[in-house]
C-alpha cells in the first residue's frame, strides 16, 4: 500500500525528468573531462533519442536509470509496492523498447554504450568504460 496520498504521489512523479537528469549530467561532465567532446544530446532523428551522440563517429551513449529500465542491480530489481499492474508491464516495455532501439542503431552501423545509474558513483570504473570511445 502506498504511504503517500494520490495527490502527493502525482506531484512526486511529475518531478521525475526524462532529460538532463543528474546521472546524465555526470556522464556529460566526465566525457568533457576525459576529452570526449563534440557530442550532441537527445537527437530525435536517432532511434531512442540517445542521451549523447557523436554523429561523425557514429557512437551513442544511453544513460539509463536502473529502476526505470529494469537493470539487474539491486535498485533495478526492486519491485514497486503500489500499482504493480501498471509499473511492472511498463518497465518490461521500457526494456523491450531499449533492446529494439539498440538493435536498430547497431544495424545502422552505430556503436552503442549503455551507462547505468548504478555505475555513475565509481568515477574510475566509468572512465574505464568510456575509454574505448576515445580510441576511435
Rounded to the nearest angstrom, the distance between the terminal CA atoms is 50 Å
Overall structural class, as computed from helix and strand content, comes to mainly alpha
Poorly predicted residue ranges:
none
Taking all residues together, what is the mean pLDDT?
90
Strand count: 3
- The strands making up the biggest β-sheet line up spatially as 1-2-3
Largest sheet: 3 strands, mixed
Radius of gyration: 16 Å
Helix content: 40-55%
Total DSSP helices? 5
Order of helices and strands: HHEEHHEH
**SS strand fraction:** 5-15%
Gross morphology: globular
Please characterize this protein's 3D structure.
The termini are far apart. The chain has 5 helices and 3 strands. The radius of gyration is 16 Å and the shape is globular. The chain is mainly alpha-helical and 136 residues long.
Which terms summarize this structure?
136 residues, three-stranded mixed sheet, 5 helices, globular
What topology does this entry show?
Elements: H1 6-14, H2 22-33, E1 52-54, E2 59-64, H3 74-77, H4 84-107, E3 111-116, H5 123-134
Parallel strand pairs: 2-3
Antiparallel strand pairs: 1-2
Summarize the structure.
The protein is mainly α and 136 residues long. It has helices at 6-14, 22-33, 74-77, 84-107, 123-134; strands spanning 52-54, 59-64, 111-116.
Amino acid at each position: 500500500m502506498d504511504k503517500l496520498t494520490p495527490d502527493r504521489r502525482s506531484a512526486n512523479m511529475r518531478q521525475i525528468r526524462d532529460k538532463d537528469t543528474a546521472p546524465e549530467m555526470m556522464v556529460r561532465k566526465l566525457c568533457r573531462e576525459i576529452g570526449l567532446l563534440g557530442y550532441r544530446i537527445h537527437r530525435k532523428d536517432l532511434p531512442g533519442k540517445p542521451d549523447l551522440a557523436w554523429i561523425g563517429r557514429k557512437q551513442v551513449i544511453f544513460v539509463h536509470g536502473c529502476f526505470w529500465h529494469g537493470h539487474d542491480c539491486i535498485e533495478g530489481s526492486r519491485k514497486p509496492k503500489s500499482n504493480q499492474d501498471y509499473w511492472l508491464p511498463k518497465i518490461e516495455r521500457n526494456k523491450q523498447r531499449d533492446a529494439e532501439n539498440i538493435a536498430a542503431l547497431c544495424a545502422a552501423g552505430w556503436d552503442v554504450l549503455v551507462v547505468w545509474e548504478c555505475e555513475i558513483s565509481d568515477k574510475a570504473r566509468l572512465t574505464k568504460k568510456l575509454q574505448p570511445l576515445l580510441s576511435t
